[in-house]
Amino acid sequence: MPAAAIALADVSVILIPQLVFNPSSMLNESYPSIVFGDATLTYDTYGIPMPPPGDFGMLNAIIRVFFQDPPDGYKYVYDPTPRTATPVAPNGTIRIFKVGSAGALTEFSGAVSATTLLAMIIGQ
Fold this sequence. Notes:
By secondary structure, the chain is mostly beta strands. The chain has strands spanning 12-14, 20-21, 28-30, 33-36, 42-43, 48-49, 62-68, 74-79, 93-99, 105-107, 110-111, 115-123.
């Protein structure tokens, strides 16, 4: 039996209230940690489901996501494309790429070890 892919329920957000900024008449910003993976759940072809905007202190939408790449040799990218099929990801996905020689990127596959991403979220 193949291992299960990481689902939305397997992704956690750690958000310190002091790191959410809602300036008047401007876009909102937050600086959360996003945690997923346990070395048994796998990476789906379409990525890891992104939690909803409210988990990041946003009211309506995520506009941009920037990840601080951890020192694991992978590049993490936010794909805003909503998915209604497996994995269900109405708020887009986190895609993982291996960084090869000369900076060439290839999509990751396989089990995902425990990962914590530091992020900057911009939204409404």
